[in-house]
Amino acid sequence: MAKKVLVVDDDEEIVQFVEARLREAGYEVFTAYDGRQGLDQIRAHHPDLVLLDLAMPVMHGFEVCQAVRADHAFDDVKIIVTSGKSYAVDIKAAKRLGADEYVVKPYDLMQLLETVVQFLGEPAK
Amino acid sequence: MKVRFWGTRGSLPAPGAGTQRYGGNTPCVELRAGGSLFVLDAGSGIRELGTFLMKEAGGRPITGDIFITHTHWDHIQGFPFFTPVFQPGNRFRIHGGRGSTKAFDKVMGGLMDPVYFPVELGDMLAKLDFIEVGGPLEYGEVLVRSTFSNHPGVNLAYRFDQGGKSVTYLTDHEIYEAMHESSPFGKKQDRLIEDFCRGTDLLICDAQYTDQDYRIKRGWGHSRYRDTVALGLAAGARRLALFHHDPWRDDDALDAIEKDARLIAGGKLECFAAREGQTIDI
């Protein structure tokens, strides 16, 4: 069974690129365009990994991270924060809130895929 | 719309003989629009605004909306000295960003933890409502929008539109392209900020650094004034207030920055270094 990845970002272009690349690699992919949608998707689909933007409308990525880590049903969900914010304080805050990794935008899609593979293993083809 | 600057200094209050013309108080801007009072940030400048409002009200209740860009000290340190919040009958809504590691009211309350300050938030007798900004807000005739800016932590910029006029408050912002070395990603993020500021009548914008500062302070969350002028031009702003002056910058140095900014703008944008006490009619 394919591992499930949720992509949460208010930049539709980024979501489309990442979604296409991950599907091509063999993952099952869900998408969301703001933090609230992202949290709803996590609760609905229980993904194995979430690629989570920070500065989003409705609900900030930090809030999503906090909500997920407050619910032990989702302890196994890996969270990779992907953000244009490269300030050390933001990276530390994300990790303190339970993010497993922090990838600064702009990122190379291949490198992002490698990071996903590190957490989930090679996708089943 | 009418704007008055009560604090224009960034990072730390900088009183003294060298800062008398531009002022030493940290950010606080009064905006009157559609018959309402808006206060942008609660730096040390808010203390004198409080005194002014109390005199103006002459004992009548004061109501207003305070918009906090972010909760770094220089933007909230004046709040416990804002006299109107201790007066029963007054009412303020205090708006701030979502997404900090604590709820907004807890962060503001933390400023008045007994370890740091002898009066607690609960001792303020005015009616205070803390609101986490999640989308556009309408206050009578005034539409308030927000967007995230580029600064360590969660930081908001606000735009106020009323009757075809607008004021945009974008302090504590580092131009993405300067930080990300001309990457397409940086350009795209800057375009989003430009769109937010598009056609605004007054852009109040972070301009803390010179080129020389930025060699050392790149990635600290503030902009070079020349990048700020470029943003004002790209966004088609009508006026640009250079804001969040470096605490180490004296009046003469700010005069020089203002002069150079005007040269860079080439007459296409009216720009000035914001001065404490300055009023602007929009």
How do the strands of the widest beta sheet of chain B line up side by side? 6-5-4-3-2-1-14
CATH superfamily membership of chain B, which one? Ribonuclease Z/Hydroxyacylglutathione hydrolase-like
User: What percent of residues of chain B adopt helix (DSSP H or I)?
Assistant: 25-40%
Question: How do the helices and strands follow one another from N- to C-terminus of chain B?
Answer: EEEHEHEHEEEEEHHEHHEHEE
pLDDT below 50 for ≥5 consecutive residues: which ranges of chain A? Answer: none
Strand content of chain A: 15-25%
Look at the helices and sheets of chain A and give the structural class.
alpha/beta
Strand order of the largest sheet of chain A: 2-1-3-4-5
Question: If you average the pLDDT of chain B, what whole number results?
Answer: 95
CATH topology annotation of chain A: Rossmann fold
CATH C-level of chain A: Alpha Beta
Query: The biggest beta sheet of chain B, please?
Result: 7 strands, mixed
Give the mean pLDDT of chain A: 95
Uncertain residue ranges of chain B: none
How many domains make up the coordinates of chain B? 1
Count every helix of chain A, treating DSSP H or I runs of 4 or more residues as helices: 5
